[in-house]
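User: Predict the structure for this protein chain, please.
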Amino acid sequence: MQEAAETRIVCISDTHNQTPKLPKGDVLIHAGDLTNQGSYSELKKTVEWLEKADFEAKIVVAGNHDLTLDTVFFEKHGSGWKWPNPQDPSTCRKLLLESKSITYLEHKAASIYLDSPEGPGTCFKVFGSPYSPKHGLWGFQYERGEASKLWNAIPLDTDIVVTHTPPAGHCDAATKDDRSGCELLLQALHRVRPMLSICGHIHEARGVEFVRWNGDTAEMGSPKECVEIWKDPGIGNKKQSLVNLTAKEGRRLDNYSLLTPAGTHFSLTSDALTLEPRGQSEKTTEDRELAVVGSTLPSQDDDENEARTAAVCKGAFAQGQDAARSEIGLTVAEQRRARRETVMINAAYLGPRIAGGSIHFNKPIGVDLELPVWRFEA
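Assistant: Here is the predicted structure, written as structure tokens:
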């Protein structure tokens, strides 16, 4: 059987220049809106806070408020905003791109390997994107007609999806305007079935939902079999807002990471995942992405990976193609059996803005998750 270890992931989003104290964990994920409008001084303050945070890995995406990080948007609309001084998007982006401890993802995937002797020694694949449906004049937005191509870029073997926008119908209920999540992102999540889907954007929708997928494609009806709403144990007390998905708590996530160590591949036996040796002549995406100890390495050849992703996406929803295989060597049917459940998390830190009222802050959301332990073969 695959060896796994408990890993704590701390999720937060929409901090908007706030730098709260963070609970302990192995991995920190920030789902965007680091600032109010993305000035260099705002970003510098936030990046310094993130770099000081004690986590093995820190995964960050931008949000619609982080205007200078969207170079194309800033060139067109930046002059319409008030700035404390002239802003240079390139300099602003370097704060994140050149950070030695932050993995900044802008619609890209990365394989993460935790290597601290005191840590869990686990690995996972994450996809991060700053985009949200167009609503007003903000950065990193897309029109509805662009959504399908945008979200088809999520690789099939992704374990954790981090998007600024929520998916439609899950952790997306707005109370003061007509914003909502993205329907085509929900369809993409049904195709990929990641372990976690982490978002923010809609502050009042902060919370967690357990989504159990059915075995059919989205075109045949609802992709969901059932949905369970999380009860936050941290409300009104000093306890952490914690989601425990480990076996010892009796609520193990019905999903398995599809990222494997070098030289191994997944197979299904009696509906259980096992690890078996793989011939060294076979090359997979994971083999090419495998990083040196303790580092992260996104895809190196975007054109090749985009073409491969497009081919896989076509096979994922096609009916009667039992031989269609994902990048990790499983048939579509096998992958669905291995990945029945996704936990959707809106981790907005800043509560809803109420005119004349005080600002409310939410606790970061911690997730205890069993992830595969990685090994380099001698």
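The first strand starts at residue 4 and ends at 12.
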